[in-house]
Write a sequence for this structure.
RNA sequence: GGAGAGGUAUCGAAGUGGUCAUAACGAGGCGGUCUUGAAAACCGUUUGCCUUCACGGGCACAUGGGUUCGAAUCCCAUCCUCUCCGCCA
């Protein structure tokens, strides 16, 4: 969400930004909201004047009553009553206008960083850097569910019967591998100075609307029936929500947290063939990192954050690349975003395993996360990034560590979490 | 889920329809006096938001409604915390 004052003073910047994001249908909103804001302020001024008058007269009534001048008090009462209707009218109108302004402000996209490449959709995202050699072995790499089945590691049929499409049972060594990756990622981030956290897995609607746009909410969030609670789509939601309505001391920044949680997503929309198996699912687990920092530090933290994910994947012998989201593919709240993609030797291309975002002050403005600085109060900047999100991450892991004999080698860093195992041996 | 108590500033806490609510009183923080320094003592200072060029004005006592000329105070609903009971990893 933008600052209303900024929008009022820089409508052209806001409009150009909307054009850069190829959302021209939102252009009229800018003038509309300026007009509504003007209206709101005029109404507020009038209502405030009437309230001022009422307050003054009410005090007089109190004084008159005290002195026992009942008749005079009644006269003043009548005067107060004169304006009551007009004030009630204004008060009734204020709410809807304010709501409409907020709704539009929630829909106008955040100003993107000047470094973001202009493009209309994900086909125009830009590769930044590759890490590691994307090897294509001379034996065939099976589909990831086939690899898992060789280890009796997955049961999608049972999951379908129990919960439906988009769920899974991980079994045996594959399930253990899943937990190991999460544990390793947790320790990896703790070693880098992040504070480990296990957050609530459900959050209230006011937190939901604070951390994401309406469109995202509709496409992602599961609501608990009869309660004002939603299952989190990522622990970022409860982790940023942790700071709702807080005024943080400047010297307590940056807050760097790494959190574990299951994630629940509706995943509305059709999926292609490459999204079978455990690629796109309704439930997965994730180790996440979030940062709350001073505005001037957010670009620096952005670079540190995605680098963490790259380092983690490299420590597991998985080649990765970073891909910068172009303007049209960037979610409305984001200032800048990199996807971290892992190499798939089967598909001979990279696929998304993590996403690193700088939200600027957009979430902080919605959630009222402020910083008490030397020169007054200001909104904090928030960032988030995936450390690792199995089971999708396991696809990359299995494909890149699969050997010709059908075994899967366990990288050294993971062995302590796998009971010292160096290799997974197929059962069939 | 049942019964009870409660939610006021950074914290503790007073205030039960107006004239001590920006909010007493106590603590903490900040500045100062005193001191070689510190402690103690003393003096001063210390909420946020909206609006305005400014002066000023308005709003906020968990949240949302209601009663009233006027609500922290009375009424209704919701949320949260604590104690006890019940249930349950």
């Amino acid at each position: 969400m933008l600052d209303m004052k900024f929008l009022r003073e820089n409508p052209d910047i806001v409009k150009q930004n909307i054009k850069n994001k190829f959302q021209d249908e939102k252009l009229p909103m800018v003038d509309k909201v300026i007009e509504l804001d003007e209206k709101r302020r005029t109404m507020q001024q009038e209502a405030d004047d009437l309230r001022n008058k009422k307050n003054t007269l009410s005090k007089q009534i109190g004084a008159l009553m005290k002195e026992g001048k009942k008749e005079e008090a009644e006269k003043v009462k009548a005067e107060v009553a004169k304006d009551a209707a007009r004030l009630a009218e204004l008060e009734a109108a204020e709410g809807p206008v304010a709501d409409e302004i907020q709704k539009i402000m929630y829909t106008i996209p955040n100003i993107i960083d000047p470094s973001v490449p202009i493009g209309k959709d994900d086909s125009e995202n830009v590769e930044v850097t590759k890490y590691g050699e994307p090897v294509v072995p001379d034996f065939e790499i099976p589909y990831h569910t086939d690899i898992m089945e060789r280890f009796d590691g997955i049961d999608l049929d049972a999951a379908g019967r129990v919960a439906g499409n988009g769920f899974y049972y991980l079994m045996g060594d594959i399930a253990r591998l899943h937990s190991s990756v999460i544990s390793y990622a947790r320790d990896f981030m703790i070693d880098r100075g992040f504070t480990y956290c296990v957050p609530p897995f459900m959050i209230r609607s006011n937190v939901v609307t604070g951390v994401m746009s309406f469109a995202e909410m509709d496409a992602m969030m599961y609501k608990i029936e009869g309660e004002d609670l939603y299952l989190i789509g990522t622990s970022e939601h409860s982790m940023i929500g942790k700071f709702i309505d807080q005024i943080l001391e400047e010297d307590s920044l940056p807050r760097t947290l790494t959190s574990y949680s299951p994630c629940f997503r509706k995943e509305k929309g059709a999926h292609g063939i490459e999204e079978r198996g455990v690629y796109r699912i309704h439930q997965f687990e994730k180790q996440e990192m979030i940062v709350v920092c001073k505005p001037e530090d957010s670009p620096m933290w952005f670079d540190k954050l995605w680098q963490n994910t790259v380092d983690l994947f490299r420590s597991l012998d998985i080649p990765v690349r970073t891909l910068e989201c172009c303007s049209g593919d960037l979610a409305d709240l984001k200032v800048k975003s990199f996807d971290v993609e892992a190499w798939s030797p089967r598909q001979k291309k990279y696929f998304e395993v993590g996403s690193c975002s700088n939200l600027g002050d957009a979430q902080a403005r919605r959630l009222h996360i402020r910083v008490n600085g030397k020169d007054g109060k200001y909104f904090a900047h928030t960032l988030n990034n995936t450390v690792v999100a199995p089971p999708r991450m396991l696809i990359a892991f299995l494909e890149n560590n699969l050997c010709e004999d059908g075994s899967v080698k366990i990288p050294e860093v993971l062995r302590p979490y796998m009971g010292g195992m160096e290799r997974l041996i197929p059962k069939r």
